[in-house]
Design goal:
The structure holds 2 protein chains of 2 kinds. Chain A is mainly beta. In chain A, about 0% of the residues lie in helices and about 55% in strands. Classes of the chains: A mainly beta, B mainly beta.
Chain lengths: ~110, ~110
């Protein structure tokens, strides 16, 4: 059964720092992996989707990489801003089913 | 712009009531999903549907049923609500492996 771990569980950084969020999963037989952000009490917003043939994706200040063989993905946030404060979730996908980690709660201090 | 809507943001029901949660997407997506989100447990898949009138059990289907009579609408039904079904319920639809979420319904069962 797929298990997804996100480290750290919580992170507090000053504005402007570059940071890395980690996601590891136990079953490497996945097709794709998606990163989301969630603001308190809200739904999830899609950030990046890494498809099975890709190793990374970039959108603005965000870059996500995927290493299926080692069961790891990282989300890199450059030049963090207070507006980046949210919970970040990763979800590897295998045949329709997405398994979610419990997330990294990020706080960026002004 | 992608849009997934859920019928209520907040809902309060009594134990034993039959509860309907509605989800509508306007993107002509084939796949739709229902999750619940609880602190410390993350998002867990209840049911999903990959076509009209088709449904598949997720990881925690007990106490729930679903209906998909039209492509754009996916309903979650709590046949007899119980207090342990108090949770945040999130609906999603997907296209080309990317999931899009609704704003969520916070259900409280008294």
């Amino acid at each position: 059964k797929q298990e997804v771990t996100q480290i750290p569980a919580a992170l507090s950084v000053p504005e402007g720092e570059n940071l890395v969020l980690n996601c590891s999963f136990t079953d490497s037989a996945i097709y794709n992996l998606q990163w989301f952000r969630q603001d308190p009490g809200k739904g999830l917003t899609s950030l990046l989707l890494i498809q099975s043939s890709q190793r990374e994706q970039t959108s603005g200040r965000l870059n996500a990489s995927l290493d299926k063989s080692s069961g790891r993905s990282t989300l890199y946030i450059a030049a963090s801003q207070p507006g980046d404060s949210a919970t970040y979730l990763c979800a590897p996908e295998g045949t329709y089913k997405y398994i979610f980690g419990t997330g990294t709660r990020l706080k960026v201090l002004a | 712009d992608v849009k997934v809507t859920q019928s209520s943001r907040y809902l309060v029901k009594r134990t034993g009531e039959k509860v309907f949660l509605e989800c509508v997407q306007d993107m002509d997506h084939e796949n739709m999903f229902w999750y619940r989100q609880d602190p410390g447990l993350g998002l867990r898949l209840i049911y999903f549907s990959y076509d009209v009138k088709m449904k598949e059990k997720g990881d925690i289907p007990e106490g729930y049923s679903v209906s998909r009579e039209k492509k754009e609408r996916f309903s979650l039904i709590l046949e007899s609500a119980s207090t342990n079904q108090t949770s945040m319920y999130l609906c999603a639809s997907s296209f080309s492996y990317e999931q899009f979420f609704g704003p969520g319904t916070r259900l409280t069962v008294l």
